[in-house]
Amino acid sequence: MAQITGKATLLFDRPPRIIGAASIVGSKESDGPLGHLFDCIEEDPKFGKNTWEEAESELQLRTARKVLEKTGLTEEEVRYLFAGDLLAQGIATSYGIMELQIPLFGLYGACSTCGESLSLAAMCISAGYAGCVMALTSSHFASAEKEFRFPLEYAGQRPLSTTWTVTGAGAFLLASEDFLSSSPSSVCITGITTGKIVDYGVKDSMHMGAAMAPAAADTIARHLHDTGRTVEDYDRIITGDLGSVGQIILKDLLREQNIEPGDRHEDCGILIYDPNTQDTHAGGSGCGCSASVLASYILPKLRRGEWKRVLFLPTGALLSKVSFNEGHSIPGIAHGIVLEHC
Amino acid sequence: MAQITGKATLLFDRPPRIIGAASIVGSKESDGPLGHLFDCIEEDPKFGKNTWEEAESELQLRTARKVLEKTGLTEEEVRYLFAGDLLAQGIATSYGIMELQIPLFGLYGACSTCGESLSLAAMCISAGYAGCVMALTSSHFASAEKEFRFPLEYAGQRPLSTTWTVTGAGAFLLASEDFLSSSPSSVCITGITTGKIVDYGVKDSMHMGAAMAPAAADTIARHLHDTGRTVEDYDRIITGDLGSVGQIILKDLLREQNIEPGDRHEDCGILIYDPNTQDTHAGGSGCGCSASVLASYILPKLRRGEWKRVLFLPTGALLSKVSFNEGHSIPGIAHGIVLEHC
After folding, report:
1. ipTM of the predicted structure?
2. What NCBIfam families would the database entry show (chains A, B) (predicted)?
3. Tell me: the pLDDT tens digits for A81-127?
4. How far is the alpha carbon of A37 from chain B, nearest alpha carbon, in Å?
5. CB B183 within 8 A of CB B302
6. Residue A323 to residue B109, Cβ atoms within 8 A
7. Are A21 and A180 in contact (CB under 8 A)?
8. Taking Cα atoms as reference points, which of A86, A31, A59 lies closest to residue A272?
9. What are the strands, taking DSSP E only, across chain B?
10. What's the angle, vertex CA B318, arms to CA B312 and CA B320, rounded to 5?
């Protein structure tokens, strides 16, 4: 079903196809450079609900429904759901997707969860365990600030290394080759490199880029080593949410291993906001950052053939407010997904 | 690789073997009816650490090391780790297993996580994605009370429907048929039925058995429907942590569907403590409850052939303190694992 290569990489003999993708974001994201690419914009940060957590659940549900609508499928045709979010005990997911009644694998990989969910969904499809599955992740600026930092009402100051949690969600339908043979999609997941935890001792929760860059560097290096490829084999290597400061650190760490991605490196967190006008400091972050940028910006370019092969690496910072308050460092993880025009 | 049957069940053509299992628990668990069966007992509730969270991380790491020691394997031979715990952002896992440096899929399914991790691990092995993988879950009484209820210092009163979070962890090594051909193990995972979220509107976080029983009933009924089997095809149907009150509710719900497990039903939460002497009220709960009872009590009976086939169903209550404080109900989920002597 797959070629097992190196320590952590699988190359699929039968690559699953991404037959549908949808993104929904908030108004700040719609004001950014990718604003015209998202499927839906919601101007109400509460999404018509009473709490930030309910808002994120609603966002996740709407995004799942959107990808079903776009592909003309029903929830009954989706065999498994791989989903997660940033909140404690994944409540945005649990309350959000309940009414879909799809058998659920709940995941937690912080902002890397989009990569984790796509990895497991791809493994599931390639093994023939299902015809169609969904990968779904979300984040919300206000629920994340409450979860990890301070209530918005405190109006805390943010240092320039801080990223801004994206209010957004991405939903993806993966299917086997023989499912929906008339699908217009032409992006496959041809391989994955699963991340391990990397901790360089960064303790500043206002500097997540620094905490996650070592994990991203580790997964990129391991992926290239496992596959025997070079950065030139990829049109782009796109990390999740390192932001502009994290990008510098990533490139420094890769240089130590003689890996020079140069302009091939992009970062969803840098892409989603305009640094000059949006006051988001180092860029965007959150599960919804990489997920919404993948759905709106990366996949269309692959589908059109502008890019042939992309290494997509959502990055996660595995802290909680308890671990932060107890003085622990912030371990990082990054999951690599090989996306190909096919 | 697997027979896809019904809405949510897979029956594996090449069932993965459980080649190793280990359990470590605290002193209260060692005083219970299964006390003599666990691999290690730790009398210090802090496991030599400074905080409850660090204690749980240490518990998880020691349990992972124990199963490697018992099987004579090294962490380098384990290709993937499927792991989780109850804490916000899964920090017991992230900090616990960091030094093992195994590529990680972080999971959250509340107390059902043991079932979720075994499901994904079995799917991974049966598809040929790895020779050997580990499933690992933990819970700790004090970290869970702090996470979901009150600090221990409040000395809150507990109603009789409450369960007691088990301080314990279980680690399992799953392998393909050709990995370690001399292994003495003889328990296979022959199938899984993946749970979906079921919510009957229970809002009492001191009555988790009632919140989870509907999910357990749903997965049992769906499993039997999907496979065309009856309860008589199983020596035991063993739920995770419904406790004594939840067990009554489960049996009532199953009766409505003409399913009568009778004495074939057992519950890890009921098995682990002595209700007469241990003052745990309805029984035990937590990811570590089903995991440690599986490793210490269920698998040895299957290995010896006393039982031929067991349906094992860890049950999870998908609440957080935020969802509870915001007045939400407690959704449940249960993942079914078919364990067979082989």
Report:
1. 0.97
2. PRK08304.1, spore_V_AD
3. 999 999 999 999 999 999 999 999 999 999 999 999 999 999 999 99
4. 31
5. no
6. no
7. no
8. A31
9. 2-5, 9-12, 17-26, 40-42, 80-84, 104-106, 132-139, 164-165, 168-175, 187-193, 236-239, 265-267, 284-285, 309-313, 315-317, 332-334, 336-341
10. 140
Q: Is residue B182 in some structural domain?
A: no
| Residue corresponding to tokens 């969803």 | A268
Residues of A with CB below 8 A from B147's CB? Answer: 88
pLDDT bucket at A196, cuts 50 / 70 / 90 = very high
Q: Are B34 and B107 in a shared domain?
A: yes
Residues B84 and B118 in one domain: yes
Task: Encode pLDDT of B134-176 as tens digits.
Answer: 999 999 999 999 999 888 888 888 899 999 999 999 999 999 9
What is the number of domains present in chain B? 2
Task: State the Cα–Cα distance between residues B216 and B200, nearest whole angstrom.
Answer: 12
Q: What is the CATH number of the domain that holds B294?
A: 3.40.47.40
- pLDDT bin (cut points 50, 70, 90) of residue A156 is confident
Structural domain includes residue A274:
yes
Show residues of chain B in contact with A322, CB under 8 Å.
53, 87-88, 91
In a domain, A116, yes or no: yes
Measured distance CA(A286)–CA(A26) in Å, rounded: 13
Inter-chain CB proximity B87 and A1 less than 8 Å: no
d(CA A290, CA A199): 21
Does residue B181 sit within a domain? no
Residue of A91, A120, A331 lying closest to B94 (CB–CB): A331
Phi, then psi, of B50 in degrees rounded to 5: -95, -25
Among the candidates B175, B202, B227, a domain finishes at B175
Q: Rounded CA gap, B86 and B287, in Å?
A: 7
Q: Which domain holds residue B83?
A: 2-175
**Cross-chain residue pair B116–A105, CB shorter than 8 Å:** yes
- pLDDT bracket for residue A181 (50, 70, 90): low
Name every residue whose Cβ is closer than 8 Å to that of residue B5 and which is 6 or more positions away in sequence.
B11, B226, B227
Q: Are residues A146 and A270 in the same domain?
A: no
- Same-domain check for residues B161 and B259: no
A89 and A122, same domain (yes or no): yes
Inter-chain touch A106–B108, beta carbons under 8 Å: yes
Q: How far is CA A39 from CA A21, A75, A165, in A?
A: 9, 19, 19
Please identify, among B121, B147, B175, the residue that sits at the C-terminal boundary of a domain.
B175
AA identity, residue A46: K
Contact B129 A127 (CB under 8 A): yes
Domain check: are A162 and A252 in the same one? no
Axis-axis angle for helices B243-255, B208-227 (nearest 10): 40
Q: Are residues A308 and A331 in the same domain?
A: yes
Tell me the pLDDT tens digit for each residue of B288-323: 999 999 999 999 999 999 999 999 999 999 999 999
Asked whether residue B150 falls in the same domain as residue B205, the answer is: no
Q: Which residue of A has its CA nearest to B94?
A: A318
